[in-house]
């Protein structure tokens, strides 16, 4: 009788074990610095590509720092403790912090980053061709000269540009210097306003908006997170809002120049699949860029922001 009982228990344990194996999904953590449409597109591209390749095989947990570096560090520490199979980081600050914390803890968990414009300069990878360690990713390219040239076709009378940016975000100070040099060559004055939280945008920007012929936004998660403030001010003053992404024109910016953010997620997922499916070390997978730029015009917003309707013959072109 006892033997039969033990046999039944063993069989039930076996069935339970099989069920657990069938329900198991490989856990992936996603770390994003803040919420706005461009970053959501990156996350979407990553998840959809992973799921399309291996339906039901992966589970995703998203950590959102909500623009708070202290919260982000706490989230990275939690990710490190929970034993994820891979971490997908969006943006420079997320990628830097994850690399730093994981290195200090000597963790070998693979990291795939996206939308980082200088991964070598920010010490995220050793080189783009051979990243080293347990990290690789997708690089962001920028072309502010072309962006400004395209905008000047629509408003050649621009004499001053207001640049609003968060100088605490990695890489943006460098971008500021690049824009400053380009505008100097074009004999256009640069007016700079530094912001650190979206809730301070209105009172910091308002005193300078009347002195500007256009407003420029970088790939700045803080500013893009508070874009509605800039749209309101630019509509009131009838000056164009120029953004460095393709999601902001849909929200009310006159112009956007950049790549489709979803492509960052798609390309990052391809690297993640090489790591998880083919067992290739992340450090042996080269960093690659997303480089198909598009210039987008929101006709209604452009007219509201002072652009001559006769010049608005195309909504978007490459």
Main attributes?
318 residues; alpha/beta; Rossmann fold; 7-stranded mixed β-sheet; 6-stranded parallel β-sheet; 13 strands; 20% strand; disordered C terminus
The total beta strand count reads 13
Q: What value does the average pLDDT take?
A: 92
Question: What is the chains' assembly state?
Answer: single chain
CATH superfamily of the largest domain: Response regulator
Biggest beta sheet attributes: 7 strands, mixed
Low-confidence blocks of residues:
7-12, 14-20, 314-318
The general outline is elongated
Strand percentage lies at 15-25%
How would you explain this protein's 3D organization?
The chain has 2 domains: 26-140 and 261-291, Response regulator (Rossmann fold), CATH 3.40.50; 144-259 and 294-314, Rossmann fold. Helix content is 45%, strand content 20%. It has 12 helices and 13 strands. The protein has helices at 2-23, 37-53, 69-82, 92-104, 144-154, 172-185, 201-209, 221-225, 227-237, 248-251, 262-277, 299-304, and strands at 26-32, 58-64, 86-90, 111-116, 135-140, 160-165, 189-194, 214-217, 241-243, 255-258, 288-290, 294-297, 316-317. Strands 7-6-8-9-10-12-13 form a 7-stranded mixed beta sheet, sandwiched between helices. Strands 2-1-3-4-5-11 form a 6-stranded parallel beta sheet, sandwiched between helices. The longest helix is centred in the N-terminal third of the chain and has 22 residues, at 2-23. The chain is elongated, with a radius of gyration of 23 Å. The chain starts with a helix and ends with a strand.
